[in-house]
Description:
The chain is α+β, with helices and mostly antiparallel strands. The chain is built from two helices and six strands, in the order αβαβββββ. A hairpin with a 4-residue loop joins strand 3 (70-73) and strand 4 (78-80). The radius of gyration is 18 Å and the shape is elongated. 17% of the residues are buried. The mean pLDDT is 96.
Amino acid sequence: MHELGVVLEIFELIEEIMKEQELKEVSSVTVEVGELSGILPDYFKECWNVARLGGTFDKTELNLIFIPAAARCACGEEYEMTKNSRTCPRCKKTDYEVIRGREFNVLSIEAR
Length: 112
C-alpha cells in the first residue's frame, strides 16, 4: 500500500511548488513509472483518484507514463525484459544489465 504514501508525498511536493510560485490550481500532473520501480500503475491511479477527492487536487488529473523494463545483454542486444522472460532473444542468455524500467519521476505539472 505504499502507492498511497507516494501519492501523498507528490501532493506535498506540489503544494510546496504552488506556494513558491503563487499558483492557484493544478490541472494535471505527469508521472513516469518504470515497470521495476515497485509501483503498480493501476493501484497508483486508484490511490491518486481517492486521495484527491475533496481536497486541493480534487480536479487534478494524473497522466501516467509506463516504462517497460529493458535490458542489455552481455552480447550487446537490448530487449524488453518481460516480453522475453528476462532471456536475451539473440543468444538466449540471462546475463544482462537493466537499462530502463526503474524510473519514477514527476515529469511535469500544469498549473495556473
